[in-house]
Description:
Layout: E1 3-7, E2 17-21, E3 24-28, E4 34-38, E5 44-53, H1 56-68, E6 75-78, E7 98-99, E8 101-104, E9 107-109, E10 111-113, E11 124-126, E12 129-130, E13 136-139, E14 142-143, E15 149-152, E16 157-160, E17 165-167, E18 170-171, E19 178-180, E20 191-195, E21 206-213, E22 217-220, E23 235-237, E24 246-249, E25 252-258, E26 265-268, E27 271-281
Parallel strand pairs: 1-6
Antiparallel strand pairs: 2-5, 3-4, 5-27, 6-25, 7-24, 8-9, 9-16, 10-11, 12-25, 13-14, 13-24, 15-16, 17-23, 18-19, 19-22, 20-21, 20-23, 21-22, 25-27, 26-27
Amino acid sequence: MAFLEERFPEDINYGSGFATTHAARIVTTAGGSEFRSLDHPYIKSSLDVDFTRQRDEVITRIIALNQRANGTFRGFRVKNYLDFSTNNFRGVPTAFDQPMVSLGSGVYQMTRWYGTPTDPLASRRRIRKPVSGTALIGVNGEVHSSSLYTIDYTTGLVTFTVNKTGTISAITKAASAVITIGAHTFLPGESVFIQNVLGMTQINNQRATILLVGASTITVDINSTLYSTYTSGGTVNTRPQTAEAVTSGCYFDIPMRFDADLSGVFVANGVLSVSGVGLVEILNP
């Protein structure tokens, strides 16, 4: 195992704190012109730690972590107090904070964007270490039921479960539309994407949360009172469909490692001074 799923001790003085670098290269010609290139758009953080401590429990934890990590070999989690949330750096996460990146077959990578997601050069961070239990998922503006996906909190990968689907045979005009689909396994709180309906075309390409279920019907949070009359056709699907926005939010740690072996100086009896302990982000832990 090249990664320890534990967090670097938070109750130490972080000294000079965090720094961020970008993979930019700049070449200056003899005439003073600049040629700039970007190797990749991923932000990379580093942390310098300086501390003098007489508290054995803190000293021991740092030294023990360095030894468990085999020096620079294994990574571990670090909380960046300036940037640990998908919502405005330090806000409470929501399901709609950041677009995820599709990896195919219903698998998405949680991502923190620092620019426009449609810009191929936009600064970003793959969220490899979301904080357990804090992630929320949204699809097309609806909070997605946790029964329809799994989150790997060691990789930041979100996998949507097998698609639940139904063929529509009727839709009522009501404050909460009732959709007839025959025998099904849908549950309240799940959301469905509606498409290919004829007649009541206004309901197409909407995602709706299921409020109630019957033996052959689902009631959704769409007011269809003023829609055209349903005539035929249509399907409902739980898994994200083409062109739907798939988003996430969470608190996250940064995967980092020691950039050198640990060393320090005893400045008094039982007082250890450690300076220049460097941590560097691992982009692919």
